[in-house]
Amino acid sequence: MIKAIFVDIDGTLRDSNRNLSAKTIETIKMVSEKGILVILCSGRPRKYTEQISRECFASKYIITSSGGNIYDYEQNKILYVNKMNKEAIIKLYEIANPEDVRFIMNVEEGRVVNKVKHPDQEKQLEEDIREFVYKNDVVQCTIADSNFDKIKNLIPKIEKVENVEIKNRHKSLLDAKFKDDKTIFCDVANIDSNKGNAVKKLLEILNIKKEETIAIGDDINDLSMFEQVGYKVAVDNAIDIVKENADEITLSNDEDGVAVFLDRLLKELD
């Protein structure tokens, strides 16, 4: 019996325009009504992930910042947090800020940035980076820009920073067949922080067995999530290595791939 389904958001649950289809929302609602936990597992910060989870009637549990945080938003309770190494954050900032790219820190429920792009989701960094970092807990940093080459050229420097590693990056940085879009990015967090470790931790908290779980994803940071579940599903727009590690490939995110898979699961349960 399936008890929990972990679903990535961008590139998996939502379409290429970052919209949730009516079919996806209705299907997740029906799955939830069956008593199965649909748990969103994203690189996004807490507040943003909660908003999407509520919109599609998923469970109250969310895994955010690529596994850096597990949160129960109905109880307003942090179940797990992996705080980034503070000196590493400062070094990452010193790499990114002089290049005039966006430096984003996932902190508490939202984001603090050096260059605000989304005022409804972000706050401007208004103090010295060292002072800010030592007063706040950051679970993930993102370095982003519209210039592909600028981010690509920063990667070797990012990889040299101790105690952290790149958890995810824009698909075009991994595979040339994926086109650049408006934002090229790298997500960086502690070495032991990933979706898989967070999934494992939440399953322990909820007393759910690995064989009672499913994960659906599309990108490199979903591989660790795949390792901790009983059945692995890739959407058709996933990168090749994710497809190779999946038990099943559903339709793409622009074809309601998650909903199609879940709808079939519901029929099998009836």
What is the topological layout?
Elements: E1 4-7, H1 9-13, H2 22-33, E2 37-41, H3 46-55, E3 61-64, E4 69-72, E5 77-81, H4 86-96, E6 102-107, E7 110-113, E8 122-124, H5 129-133, E9 138-145, H6 148-159, E10 164-169, E11 184-190, H7 195-206, E12 213-217, H8 223-226, E13 231-235, H9 240-244, E14 248-250, H10 257-269
Parallel strand pairs: 1-2, 1-12, 2-3, 7-8, 12-13, 13-14
Antiparallel strand pairs: 3-4, 4-5, 6-7, 6-9, 9-11, 10-11
Helix pairs in contact: 2-10
Biggest sheet, strands in spatial order?
A: 5-4-3-2-1-12-13-14
Order of helices and strands: EHHEHEEEHEEEHEHEEHEHEHEH
| Range of helix content | 25-40%
Radius of gyration: 18 Å
- Classification by helices and strands: alpha/beta
Strand content: 25-35%
Mean pLDDT, nearest integer?
A: 95
Distance between the amino and carboxyl termini: 12 Å
Shape: globular
| DSSP summary, beta strand count | 14
Low-confidence stretches: none
User: How would you sum up the major sheet?
Assistant: 8 strands, mixed
**Quaternary status of these chains?**
single chain
Number of helices: 10
